[in-house]
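Protocol step 6 of 9: fold each sequence in the batch and record its structure tokens directly after the sequence line. For illustration, a two-sequence batch is reproduced in full.

Sequence one:
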Amino acid sequence: MSEVAHAAPTASEYIVHHLTHWQNKPQTEIVDFSVFNIDSLFFSITLGLLGSFFLWKAARKATSGVPGRFQAAVEMLMEMVDGQAKSIVHNANSRKMVAPLALTVFVWIFLLNAMDLLPLDFLPLVWQGVTGDSHAYLRVVPTADLSITMGLSVSVLFICLFYNMKIKGLGGWAHELVSAPFGTSKNPIFFVILAVVNIAEQLISFTAKTVSHGMRLFGNMYAGELVFMLIALLGGSWAFSAEPGSLMLLLLHVVAGWAWAVFHIIIILLQAFVFMMLTLVYIGQSHDAH
């Protein structure tokens, strides 16, 4: 038993291993834009295709009669998203793209978040068995990866910039950048000063919205992942302990794991909904003239 205990990783080693990504380059302290988190990309693309397939299947098999459970669930979801889109984005032509986009965002992020409900060591152990490397890295929750959540928020930013130019025109949007929110002046000196201040405020606003959009989702899912790791350590402490009293650790592991998983389902849904709503709000704001 002492040899097994000696071979077991420490709590810090266990957490660090589970927080390390499978990357296209060896793990180093230097981070640059040529390093990709392959695991996050793989699960994001796979779940994106899976979500699209289910939505396509629901649309293809939709009937005008009494809907089945799957069709009814998708229709309820679509009605909820469409209602939110109508209340925020008042341009009917824009909603033809924005409403499906919001639905896709909600379903995709929900699926990404739901990976956190899988047993913590299940897929990493499967991956280690496939590779034959007991130290192989694999993280399965893409939304606990800042590069993924910031990539999503930056994509929303580009869509907002697109609608700013489409709805207001390039000249109209350029005028808004130098005149909102503090107005302008006929005096050349004050005009330049106000223009600089207005542009700075607009840049800060776009940056703050984009960063908070991605960081909010990342922070909540990263924290949830850490809690699952701490709960898993309770089970690990029981497995590698020879003490009779360690059964209490197993009980805490089971109870805490079940309770946190139930509570985390709410977090998973809420974070998908919040990200979708902020996407709609930011796109709706790009339609408003100042």
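Sequence two, same batch, same settings:
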Amino acid sequence: MKLDSLAIKYDNGLLWVLDQQALPQQEIWLECHSIDDMCAMIKALKVRGAPLIGIAALLALMQYVTKGATIEEIKIAIKQLVATRPTAVNLKNYMQVLLNQLTTNVEVVFEIGQKFFLEDITLCENMATLGAELIPPGANLMTCCNTGGLATAGSGTALAVIKKAFQQQKVKHVFPCETRPLLQGGRLTAWELEKANIPYTLICDNMAAMVMAQGKVDAILVGADRIAANGDIANKIGTYSLAVLARFHQIPFYVVAPYTTLDSTCASGRDIVIEIRDPNEVRGALGKLSWTPEQTQVYNPSFDVTPAELITNYILDTGIFNPASIHLAINESRTIEKLSI
């Protein structure tokens, strides 16, 4: 079985991930040999993005099966993988589906892994098509973090919408925010925009208000790592700030995410566990440069929570919803608990 995307490749038991820590200077493919390897790659953000983390975990389990893993060994590996990133829900959702069906036959790992990989490609295309309809001609857009092909098996979430709208000649310019942790907007989104020949200007996160005040932004598009039952979202740190600024400047604020990011078991954003990362990610740059005193105290949350009332629309693969109707998508669409192959 062969599965191939911008950021991950699987070929009959062989597994590689594009090292997103090395981008944009180098495009290095790292071979994954074990569950421990994949856990380390996920924790280090060498593979990242809520949908792609879940898919990468599934592919690692597929590889594990080719090495002779038993059902009990797979269950232990699932616990390892789920523990790597607590905020993004896609990983937990995928693993729960697998656990529900992992009864007597390890071959189900291959079926579920292939299903979710191929499905994600379709979900991305659906979101891109629906979202592009909301983008006016000549639009200047803002986004944060990376939500493109580096974060999914397909073309992405928010960045896929931007790419689709650009193909429709609607997008004039994009302002990606550099985005902590590890400047994923500056390193990764800029890399994808460059490859797509989309005009862009990188800004620091704390420049967003000024750019909006200058009338340079027509809409803001972000992804989501978890959407709670009440519509609150967890997304990369800085998203909440953009939503508040968008409300003040009367700019549409769109959240783009697949159904695999919905979490009907999470009542609100208050219940979302926020990942706290290594202080050294703030003290310096990628371990190569330090710009603070060595003992500087650092608070380094990876995500923040944006309340539903600050969101203009949710662009899901199943349709476009507003805060008043998002519960319909969560409760009545293809919720993860109902999934089966």
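Proceed to step 7 once all outputs are recorded. Observation for sequence two: Confidence is low (pLDDT under 50) at residues 334-341.
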